[in-house]
Amino acid sequence: MAMKNPYEQYQQNSVNTASPGELTLMLYNGCLKFIHLAKGAIAQKNFAERNKNIIKAQDIIRELMVTLDMEQEVSQNLMQLYDYLNRQLIQANIKNDVSILEEVEGFVTEFRDTWKEVIQINRQKTFANGGQA
Fold first, then answer.
1. Beta carbons within 8 Å of 5's beta carbon, 6+ residues apart
2. Which of the ends of the chain has fewer CB neighbours closer than 10 A, N or C?
3. What is the DSSP letter of 68?
4. 114 to each of 21, 57, 107, how far by Cα in Å?
5. How many Å apart are CA 38 and CA 49, to the nearest integer?
6. Each residue's pLDDT tens digit, 32-44
7. CA-based nearest residue to 64, from 97, 104, 31
8. In angstroms, what CA-CA distances link 58 with 15, 36, 73?
């Protein structure tokens, strides 16, 4: 039996043991990674790579969409924003437009930073309550 790459094994363990909040943070970070790679591909005129990475970013946005609890008002607002971002990614791919990717990147960065802050606040509250949320 072949030994797994230790980095891949670590990544898999990170995903398997992550809380829902941490998984959402990972999705935001992944989306930003693929947007960054798509921007680099545009600069290198590598259209296949651009397409591949924008599609991966879209997949993440769609995953974020399906995880929303639509009974919450904030989820309804997020759904509209995610839908907008998804449509913008499509346009960036069609038009080969870095400025559209930068707009999406700005939104996703804000979402990620806000989400990261929420996780930190929840951890502080849990720690202050002796490990009970």
1. none
2. N
3. -
4. 12, 19, 11
5. 7
6. 999 999 999 999 9
7. 31
8. 20, 13, 23
